[in-house]
Amino acid sequence: MMKRLLFLFMGVYMLCNSTAFGQIAHDISFTIRNFGINVEGKFNSSAVIGTIDLSALQNTQLRVSIPVNTIDTDNKTRDEHLLEEEYFYASQYPNLEFESTALREVADRAYELQGNLTIKGVTKNVVIKMYSESMGNTTRLIGELEINRRDYGVGGRSLVMSKNVTISITLEIP
Questions:
Q1: Which of 65, 90, 100, 105 is positioned for an S-S bond with 83, CB 3.0–4.6 A?
Q2: β-bridge pairing 26-34 and 110-119
Q3: Composition of the chain by helix, strand, coil, percent to 5
Q4: Which residues pair with 69 in a beta bridge?
Q5: What pTM was computed for the model?
């Protein structure tokens, strides 16, 4: 029994530490118009875990988790306001989540990453248009996704803030 547990533990350890499935280097930011001015922001902490396989797209699996309380728009007062119930309601919904369902090639070096995006307890199927770019031994997948913040109950009916938010994503594949 002890040997089985040891082998099971070693197998799980090797799987979690393989380069095929694990933490993926990434950058995630967003832009929204507020009072006619583009406000840019990012989250100072996020995790992208999974595997990206451009030679066998069906093997791609991604799970993204972003703690809402790490929002950074370069304005501390605004960031604190965004954590309140009308916006992200961080005390009730501490994370933004994305889980991929498919990656498909639509043209040479152009892809669509499909998945479920959950914000403030609301889950919607989204498609992120991406393209690949080679940089030495690394390939980057770069893409954007535009969402309607109102679909997720973020920001109420504000007339001075755009309903559209552009999310920019870069994933690095070694």
A1: 90
A2: unpaired
A3: 20, 55, 30
A4: none
A5: 0.85
